[in-house]
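Workshop exercise sheet. Pairs work together: one partner reads the sequence aloud, the other fills in the structure field after running the prediction. Swap roles for the next sheet.
Pair: D.N. / O.F.
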Amino acid sequence: MRPLWLVLLTAVVAGSLVVPAGPSGAQALGDLVDDLGRVRAGLDAANAQLMTTREQRVVLQGQIAEVGIQIDGLRSRITAAQSEIDRLVAEREEIRRTVRARALVLYQQRRPAGPTVTLDFDSPMDLARRQVLGRAAARDDEDARVRLGAASDALAAARDELAAERSRLESQEAELAARRRQLDDLDARIRSQQAELDTRARDLQQRIQAAIAAGIIAAGGPSLVGPTALTAAQMAAWWRSVGYGGYSVSVPIETLAQIYVSEGNAEGVRGDLAFAQAVVETGGFRYTNPGNNFAGMGWCDSCSNGRRFPTPTDGVRAQIQHLRNYGDPASRAARLAYPPSPYWYAPTSLDPAVAAANFDSFFAKGWALTWNQMGRGNWATDPGYAQKVLTVYGRMVAFATGS
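Structure field:
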């Protein structure tokens, strides 16, 4: 007898759309899907623009901080330059005072043995000493003149450097003011973009809910959130049984499967279904470029490349957290087991605050409560995306139970 969990899992692997009877019903469904796809594409673009603006804000904040550091350095150098000028002025005045004092004594005494000693001019010894002291005074005067000139030159250079530093300070302060104005503009742009995105997202969500209520879109099927049913060993064994070639992950399949279980359990997301999604996206983990991208994250119909993650855990974590955002309308960064992946939610700055803000403001939060609602713009544009993932998952369940 099959266990109850397997009966329930097998029962929920089903289609995602209910097509009304008749050609007109099918046409109505096609028109709705096409219209929702166009609106969703516009929302994707608006969300990308908002994320880019937030990244620009972080870069600008870094530039403002850098300019602030430069300004602090300039102010310190200006203070030091002013102190040096004060010292040089005092030194020059001291030299001048000494020269003036000696000149005054020489003038008053006429024949000094020193600055304050009067000599006897009638003595031959006195005459000789006066000549020696006169020559010494001349040397002192020359030395004072040299020192005075050097002090004056140093003072002039210090004043020139002070003027240059003040000029640089004025320029940096003007740059700081300009960047702060740019930051204010970015803040206003973020508020405007967020408000517009919220309004458009609400309108689209109301239309989707109306379509579900009318039976046009089915809401059944396995949920994105919830406990993981299959074990890592069961998933890895199924993968080996299929015989996928060209495995391109840096860890064994058993380790990768366990990462899906661990990350899924940490965030309350179905890790086994996320593993099935990765199998669909990568051809059984054959195509994971750029590095450790297991769920086509960052790829689009017109993109030449996807997002890169440094480790397998980072790649799985970004996938699991994004699934949480799709499957839980109340998801918030503060409620995650791990901070939102900066490699997905803040790829330019890798700033944790930006990643948290982008996680919390994701416009499609709660838009795919079940896997039947994935695809057609939710994660992928392929209208058959959900069924592909659920088909792989059904095979994993069947293998695990031997059915």
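Discussion prompt: Strands lie at 112-114, 117-118. What would you look at next?
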